Amino acid sequence: LKITFLGTGTSLGVPEIGCNCEVCVSEDPKNKRLRPSVLVESKNISILIDTTPDLRIQALKYGVNKIDAILYTHQHADHIFGLDDIRRFNYIQRKTIPCYGNERTIKAIMQSFSYILENDKRFEYFLPKVDFNTIDGKFCIGDVEIIPVELLHGRLKILGFRIGGFAYLTDCNKIPEASREILSGLKVLVLDALRRNPHIAHFSLSEAISEARLINAERTFFTHISHDLEHNLINEQLPENMRLAYDGLVVEI
Fold first, then answer.
1. Beta bridge partners of 191
2. 89 pLDDT more than 90
């Protein structure tokens, strides 16, 4: 597997609008964070996790030219509002792209993007062509097995995903014990780590480190990072097998 981090920031992105903090004004590209998303590629299949509002920029910046399927973690704006940009991939690939999420997420996306369901042939070129699927247990996209991992994002039940030795767990502040059992033997874990201070719906950095130690993956990368965490400073303080991810990072398993 090849994992490309297309975005590692919060819903506001980094830099934040109107902020002059050390991280927001930093010249270091690793402190510039688009909204959170990854592209997972096997030999034949390219899977996008979440369609952020920055999807067009991410695709151009990191050479994303093929998407075979989309996995959705949940329905919040920073994870779904780039869906309209999928129409360019429809045009390139000449096919409908399947999308997968839990029932609540799929219903919310269909409501937010109701215009794409109208099937008006006059505007066919201007509408993304997607096929919505509700996840009910593990499934396959081509030869790639997807194992959903139930998480809590505040009170909202959302999904992470395990794909082979890789797991992507963003926007969470609790991992149920049954889900943690799914995460044994990981090569690479990607985990939410919003900021230093506690948050009602996200792991803080110290909480994320504790969770990462429990899961005990060979390598852990933290994502959904706010402007509270300066890349190099935090990495110097982290355990040897844990690091902040950054936009454009490529990890291979």
1. 169, 222
2. yes
